[in-house]
Amino acid sequence: MRRIGFDACLTQMYFIHILSFIESSVLLAMAIDRFIAISHPLRHSSILTKTTVIKIGLAIIVRGMVSLLPIPFLLKRLTYCRKTELSHSFCFHPDIMNLACADIKVNVFYGMIILLSTVGMDFIFIVLSYILIIKTVISLATKEECLKALNTCVSHICAVLVFFIPMIGLSMIHRFGKNLPPLVNTLVAYTYLIIPPALNPVIYSIKSSHIREALLRALWRKRESNW
User: d(Cα 115, Cα 144) in Å, to the nearest integer?
Assistant: First the structure.
């Protein structure tokens, strides 16, 4: 069994959650970018200037860091039982919290508020952005223009689904899946941690004809060498 110090575990947890929050915010920023590109294509560069993009990036990082800063201190104040075995191979806030022998109502409440006010709000605004995008696309003159506009959003929609589905699944398991087999917890946790960053490059590169052709050539050469 591998061990990790408590302070190191809190640090790992803090950065894992920060990266998740940042990814959620980036997906929202990309959804707004798609909406502006489709609704106001001629004004896109004047609305999203370099200065505006830098400010958005800094706001995303600061929001993630500040909103999660109390979490390690809230966990550190708790008293823990003798059994300190985590359900996953990485440190996750609900997992650490459930090891405590003390009252964790404050931790549960704060964690829920932060999750809903950051990732939850991001998801709602992403959905609203796509509702506005669909409304704009429907008003376009021809079917070809509609399909062309929607085609620019396919990669982003896939990235949103790949990110939010495992996150929601892991949160639901920690809230309501106490009696599930440990294997289910492990699979969902690894899906949440590994699948989104592994698939994102594939999702965004597969739309590029040059990258797609290079991948096909590489696969074809590998197939020929196996023969």
Answer: 39
Angle between the N-to-C axes of helices 6-39 and 154-176, in degrees from 0 to 180, rounded to the nearest 10: 140
Q: pTM of the full predicted structure?
A: 0.84
Tell me the backbone φ, ψ of residue 29, rounded to 5 degrees: -60, -40
Q: How many DSSP H helices and E strands does the chain contain?
A: 11, 0
Contacts of residue 74, defined as CB under 8 A and 6 or more positions apart, other chains included, come to: 106, 107, 110
Inter-residue contact 17 to 68 (CB < 8 Å): yes
* pLDDT tens digits along 75-129: 988 888 767 777 777 888 888 888 888 888 898 899 889 988 999 999 999 999 9
Asked whether 20 and 68 are in contact (CB, 8 A), the reply is no
Q: Which residues have a Cβ under 8 Å from the Cβ of 3 and sit 6 or more positions away? A: none
Taking alpha carbons only, the member of 102, 52, 112 closest to residue 75 is 102
Task: Give the whole-angstrom CA distance, residue 66 versus residue 71.
Answer: 10
* pLDDT, tens digit (0-9, with 9 covering 90-100), for 36-86: 988 888 888 888 899 999 999 999 999 999 999 999 999 988 888 767 777
Q: Which of 114, 99, 106 is nearest to 4 (CA)?
A: 99
For the beta carbon of residue 78, count every other beta carbon within 10 angstroms.
Answer: 16
